[in-house]
Each structure stands twice: as structure tokens, then as C-alpha cells.
Amino acid sequence: MSDQAPIEERLRAALEARGRLISAHDLSPGRPPTGRTWGTLRIRRVLSIAAAAAAVAAAAVALLLSSAAPDHSRPAPPARHPTPSVTPTSPAPHPVPSTAPHAVPSTDPQAVPSAVASGP
């Protein structure tokens, strides 16, 4: 045990000398950490809360839409051919083209066209 006493004395002396080198300026508080870590943690927290709120809102909308949907358990009625309410009549006759020659219009404003003058 006699070997430990000189080592312990030397360590105490070294620590005491080192302690005398520290001043009040060295003991001032350090600067707070800066950089991405503070903002990143807050942003992640806000984004996770926003994602959870969006998921809850989407689930609520899906629940409301599914409860408001009509009941699809009733089968749809079979398709039918449409029946017209009015039966079509015989087709209209085609107009017969006129065999009368076309008259040349006159420049006289009081002249009566030949078709009107001859009458029906």
C-alpha cells in the first residue's frame, strides 16, 4: 500500500494545480445549442400531429359518407324495352316537285308574278 500513497499524492497535486488555472470567466454559462436540431424536432412534432388530425378527419368523412349511402341490398329492377306512348302513323307523302317552269322576276314593282296572277 505504500506504492499507492505517492501516486495518490501526485494525482491530488496535479488536480489542485489544474483547479488553480480555472478562472471565473471559464465558469460562465455556455451558449445554448443552435442549428437544425431544435427546429427539426418541433417541425416533426407539428407534422405528426397534423398527420394524425388529417387521418381522423378522413376517417370521419368516410364514416359519414358510408352511413349516408343508400342501401344497395335491394336488387335493381330488370331493364325493359321502351314502349312508345303514341303509335306512329303512316309516313308523310313526299312533296311532288313542281312541273311549272320558273318565271323570271320582273323589274316592275307593280308587276304580279305569273303564279299568283293565274290563281290556284
Descriptive account of the structure:
With 120 residues, this protein is mainly alpha-helical. The chain is built from three helices and no strands. It has helices spanning 4-20, 36-68, 114-118. The chain starts with a helix and ends with a helix. 0% of the residues are buried.
Going by helix content, strand content and strand pairing, the class is mainly alpha
The ordered string of helix (H) and strand (E) elements is HHH
The major β-sheet equals:
none
**Portion of residues in helices?**
40-55%
| Low-confidence region ranges | none
Radius of gyration in whole Å, from Cα? 54 Å
Number of strands: 0
* Beta-strand percentage range: under 5%
Mean pLDDT across all amino acids: 75
Number of helices: 3
Q: How far is the N terminus from the C terminus?
A: 153 Å
Which overall shape is indicated by the principal axes computed on the Cα atoms? Answer: elongated
Kindly summarize this structure in a few lines:
This protein is mainly α and 120 residues long. It has helices at 4-20, 36-68, 114-118.
